[in-house]
Amino acid sequence: MSLLQLGRPWDTIQLLLEALPSLDSAKVGQVYSDNLRASYNFLSEPLTKQGALSMLEQTFQKVVSLAFSSIEATETSDGFALEFTLNVSSKNGREIRSRNCIVASVDRDGKIDRLREYLDPAAFAALDEPCSHLPAL
Amino acid sequence: MPSPAGPVETFRRYLTAHQIFDWDGMRAFLAPSARMWYNYRTDLPDGLAAEDAFVEIQKLTSVLDSMEFMFDRPNMETDTEFAVQLTCRATTKSGKTFFVPVMYMGRLDGQGKIAGYEEYLDPSALADLFGDLQ
Fold first, then answer.
1. Of the candidates A29, A17, A35, which has an alpha carbon nearest to the alpha carbon of residue A108?
2. What residues contact A46, with CB distance under 8 A and at least 6 apart?
3. Does the N terminus or the C terminus of chain B have fewer Cβ atoms within 10 A?
């Protein structure tokens, strides 16, 4: 039996925290239900699974590595709440640290079917800044 | 001893005092050592003590005409912890209205008082508010 089939929030958290640093959106997709609705505090409308993975894929293309630290997880009646610090090294040479919070519900198969993420998107603006490896012209 | 009202209800009452700018009402729900942390204050990695946070909150809300916390999302709790999601609707004295999704993660102490919380939001949604402060 796979961890996902156990349907326990702690296993889902573990899988999510392993999938995101892989920078592989397909692997993240294995943790999301096909019925996912994902809301982000910087977007006015929720995204489908495809939309959420597409946004992640665009971000991953700008990233060299992604790691979590200072993780605090709380089990809820239908899922979990997760606070964490995201440490990102970007391809343009920036180091980004952002404290984020996710609230998620988990379906019977252990997959996330409702996700709300809260963060300060200004922290990620550095992903789109000019490459710091190149000398100024 | 856990709060008889429960963590979410205790925090909702705190926010109810907040939205009518009842500072003493808010203090009544806080532990003496309560600390608040804000995701957009990267200059304050350890957050603020309650009275210091109140100075900041009072400054921000000084340009508001009204504020309402709309509990339009699911809230969760354990015996002592809460996760409260809401949308804050606020109107400035200059007539601008904005809506901000906010997430609070927090905890109560053994006396049922709020020991601290973390506030997560997108500060760009508050641009009108910050503009009125200048």
1. A35
2. A37, A38, A39
3. C
As given in the structure block, the two tokens for residue B105 are 């993660």
What is the reported pLDDT for B25?
Answer: 95
Cα separation, A48 vs A44, in Å, equals: 13
- The model's pLDDT over B10-30, given as tens digits with 9 standing for 90+, comes to 999 999 999 999 999 999 999
- The nearest alpha carbon in chain A to B100 belongs to A41
Cβ proximity of A65 and A89 under 8 Å? yes
B44-49, long-range: CB within 8 Å, 24+ apart, which pairs? B47/B116, B47/B118
CB < 8 Å to B74, chain A: 103, 105
Per-residue pLDDT at B128? 72
Helix (H/G/I), strand (E/B), else coil: B99: strand
ipTM over cut 0.95: no
> Is residue B82 within 8 Å of residue B69, measured between CB atoms?
no
Q: How far is B87 from chain A (nearest CA, A)?
A: 10
Tokens coding B132: 């009125």
d(CA B20, CA A84): 32
